Automatic annotation (TrEMBL):
The lineage of its organism: Bacteria, Bacillati, Actinomycetota, Thermoleophilia, Solirubrobacterales. This is Rod shape-determining protein MreD. It comes from the Bacteria. The keyword Transmembrane applies. Keywords: Cell membrane, Cell shape, Membrane, Transmembrane, Transmembrane helix.
Length: 195
């Protein structure tokens, strides 16, 4: 029974994180403008989930969050989902292939995630034939958005880590707890010598 409960713990936490994260983004954060650009927390959340949970959970979380963003903002369905799948999968593959341990990796990944989201969305809108003004002002806004994404990447990563801690399969606290419940030795007990 506990193995089944443990299996649903990460998806439940990610679903709550995605739901409340998009609601906060759409209702509050998007209303605040810094240098003419509002911070987009959704790609930062997706990148953080990819870095913490891996490529498959990152891609699935990216799809769900992107679809929810498209529905909440009443825009072309699937555009944001496609971009967020790429962000979540790429961040997860970085974790799986390189196992980045440096404390500033979330900053770099957040900047890249914001760049993929911002430039990719503009490119997808252009390819879909939706007219948008292309000028130096757009380039300025993209650069400011990437800088803001890098700035907010660490706090978002810390928040996501706090939400999913204990539910990740390779979490040290979870491994320790499982060792005790499956008959592993306690670190306080020593095997007797000479028996």
């Amino acid at each position: 029974m506990t193995a089944m409960a443990d299996g649903w713990q990460l998806p439940a936490r990610l679903a709550a994180l995605g739901f409340f994260g998009v609601i906060v983004q759409v209702a509050a954060v998007s209303q605040i403008s810094i240098l003419g650009v509002s911070v987009d927390l959704a790609p930062l959340m997706v990148a953080a989930v990819g870095l913490l949970a891996g490529s498959l959970p990152g891609a699935i979380f990216g799809f769900a969050v992107g679809l929810f963003v498209d529905l909440a903002l009443v825009q072309t369905l699937g555009v944001t989902s496609l971009l967020f799948i790429v962000i979540g999968y790429a961040a997860g593959r970085l974790r799986e292939l390189r196992d980045p341990a440096h404390g500033l990796v979330p900053v770099m990944v957040g900047a890249v995630a914001t760049a993929i989201s911002t430039v990719g969305f503009a490119l997808m809108q252009f390819l879909l034939g939706i007219e948008a003004p292309v000028s130096w002002l757009l380039l300025r806004q993209v650069v400011i958005a990437i800088l803001l994404g890098a700035l907010f990447a660490l706090p978002v990563h810390a928040l996501v880590r706090r939400v999913v801690s204990g539910a990740l399969p390779d979490d040290p606290r979870r491994r320790r707890r499982r060792a005790y419940t499956t008959g592993g030795l306690s670190p306080l007990s020593r095997p007797s010598e000479g028996r």
